[in-house]
Each structure stands twice: as C-alpha cells, then as structure tokens.
Design a protein that fits this description.
Blueprint (H helix, E strand, L loop, with lengths): L1 H21 L4 E6 L7 H16 L4 E6 L8 H10 L4 E5 L22 H8 L2 H9 L5 E16 L14 E4 L3 H9 L3 E4 L5 H7 L4 E4 L1 H6 L8 E17 H4 L4 H24 L1 H10 L3 E3 L4 H19 L1 H8 L3
Parallel strand pairs: 1-2, 1-3, 5-6, 5-7, 8-9
Antiparallel strand pairs: 3-8, 4-7, 4-8
Helix pairs in contact: 2-10, 6-12, 12-13
This protein binds (2R,3R)-2,3,4-trihydroxybutanoic acid.
(2R,3R)-2,3,4-trihydroxybutanoic acid (EAX) binds next to strand 3.
C-alpha cells in the first residue's frame, strides 16, 4: 500500500515536472535609444523585433522606446543595462568606452577612411574582439550597427577650419577621445546627454554640436542650426547591447535567434543610414540650412593630430595600425 502511494506521488511529481518543462519561454524586452522613431536605429530595431517575433512564433517580442523615454542619455541607458533595469541598448559607442575601455579605440578621430573600411574592421576579427570585450562589463554585445560619420554644426561660423571654429562651445558625447580631440583643436568641448542638446542649442548654452546627418535630420536640428559643416571628423559606430542579467535568463536556442537577428539587421540599418544621407542634406538645404561642403579636412585632421598621438600611446600603436591597415 505504502509502496503504491509512493509510486503515485512519484508519478504525479514527474508529470508535474514534465509539464513545467514543456512551458515555453516567453518574454517582452524593451529596446531603448536616444533617437527618434524616424532614425535608422528605430527602423532597424523594428526589423530586429519582427525577425525575433517571427522566429520564436511570437514568444519573444521587442518593444521600442525612442527619444530617451527610458533614460535621459546613453550613459544612463548603459548603467540600466548593467543593473538589469533596461533590456536592450541601441546607441553609439560614444559612452561605451567608459564601461568597456577597449571600445574607446573606434572613436578616435580620422581613424576610419570610408564605409568600406568601417565594414571590414567592424565585421572582421577586430570588431568581433571589441564586441566580445563588452561582455566583461555587464553587457552582452550583439552587433555593430551604425551612427555614422560625424559633422560639426553651429550658428556662428562656417567652421571650414578649426581656427575659424576656435573657442566654439561644442556639445560632444561623454567620450574621452572626442573631448580631447576638440580641445586639442582649440574648441571648447562640452559633454551632455543627447536629450538635452536641442534645448541647449535653442537657449544658447552651447554654440554647436556634432552628429551624423541621420541624427541631425531626424531630430530636426536644422530648425535651430545655421551651418552644418561636413567635417566627417570621426566615424561613430552603433552597438546593440543586451543587459547581461536579462540575457543569462534566456534559453540558449532563443539567445541564438536573438543574436542572429541583431547581426542580420546590421546590414539593413547601415544601408538605410548611408543611402539617405544626400537626400536628407538636400532637403534641409531647401529649408535654409547652409551645408558647408568645402571644409578643409586636412586642417581639422592636423589640428587633432596631437590627440591622435596621445591615443597611440594609450592603446598601443600596433592596435591603431591594425585598424588603419585593414583593407
Ligand atoms: O547614438 O549622443 C549623440 O550625439 C549620439 O550620436 C546619439 O545619441 C546616437
């Protein structure tokens, strides 16, 4: 009798546990970004979410929160990832070097020559290593997307040369490489969260800012900036990062689906960003923005060279050379 009861208990236990095991994993993750719904980040995140939803039969869904709604800036978003209060980050590498030091190397001015060079480095062994490094800082690095080549804008000068832009109070990201480069070039770099830039420009707390065309256009900075000078002084990669705390709770097969979808979306997001640049510039010119195309890039590069040399000391010239020599 006792034996039969024990067997019955055992049977119901094993039935229960097999029921628990059969329960499918479901989750909804929040994707956070400083950029607007019109920016390639958001369009990329929507596609990323569609792929994940489709490939998990709707078990895993992504919800996109644009315009800094979940945190005021990218640094705060990264802190949220570490704490597990924010799930997914789509943002620039700008502040990531403060958390994962090796990442700062990609933000050195005049390091990347063109988009082809960018793709070769970020999709090759160097990019893969940098992405793996962020996993030591509370993140799970999924993919490099794109923010773009950054250009200086302001209301005062055409900024064809750094001499002309001397003393300009320029908002930068919280990025040591950018701040040092602008300081070396004679400007007055002022780091600030992106969500504060529009109003700071409006009230004149800062004279200008620097960002890729896609950001400038999506945030309508042409409404409050007179000159956009195509300095292209630095390439700004974007990253898709998951909170490691959240990531570790996802079953392995689902992790693979998510990682693959983020990586696949990279080509789509980068293409969107690149294809529309000219069109966006022309449209803003039509509305009165002065796009300064004849910038003296050599003068900007020369003025930032001492900062470049400083980075060579910091990172090791061999690491910088490995990027430059990637063909
Ligand atoms: O990630 O803060 C910035 O200027 C960045 O370019 C932007 O947030 C995109």
């Amino acid at each position: 009798m006792k034996c039969m009861i024990a067997a019955g208990v055992l049977l119901s236990f094993s039935l229960q546990s097999s029921l628990v095991q059969a329960e499918p994993f479901t989750a909804t993750y929040k994707v956070t970004m400083t950029q607007t719904a019109a920016h390639p980040y958001a369009l990329g995140a929507n596609k990323f979410g569609d792929l994940v939803k489709e490939r998990t039969n709707g078990r895993i869904q992504l919800k996109v929160f644009t315009d800094s709604t979940l945190a005021k800036g990218e640094r705060e978003m990264l802190e949220g990832l570490q704490q597990g209060t924010i799930d997914i980050y789509v943002g620039s590498t700008g502040p990531v070097g403060n958390f994962s030091p090796s990442m700062l190397i990609v933000d050195i001015p005049f390091l990347f020559r063109d988009y082809d060079h960018v793709d070769k480095v970020l999709d090759g062994p160097i990019g893969k290593q940098l992405l793996a490094d962020v996993d030591k800082s509370g993140f799970k690095g999924l993919a490099f997307w794109e923010n773009g080549f950054r250009h200086v804008s302001n209301n005062k000068v055409t900024a064809k040369t750094p001499e002309e832009a001397k003393g300009l109070k320029l908002r930068t990201m919280e990025n040591k490489a950018h701040m040092l480069a602008f300081k070396t070039a004679g400007l007055n770099p002022t780091p600030m969260a992106y969500s504060e830039v529009y109003s700071a420009l409006q009230v004149g707390v800062i004279d200008g800012q620097e960002n890729p065309v896609a950001v400038f256009y999506a945030s309508k900075l042409n409404e409050i900036q007179k000159y956009l000078s195509l300095t292209g002084h630095v390439y700004s990669p974007a990253l898709v990062l998951f909170s490691q705390k959240k990531w570790n709770r996802i079953p392995k097969e689902d992790q693979e689906i998510i990682a693959k979808a983020a990586l696949e979306t990279a080509a789509f997001e980068r293409k969107l960003n690149r294809d529309d640049e000219d069109k966006k510039l022309k449209e803003m010119e039509g509305k009165g923005l002065v796009v300064v195309r004849d910038v003296n890039k050599e003068a900007w590069q020369k003025a930032m060279q001492p900062a470049f040399d400083e980075f060579a000391k910091q990172f090791g010239k061999d690491k910088i050379d490995a990027i430059i020599q990637t063909k």
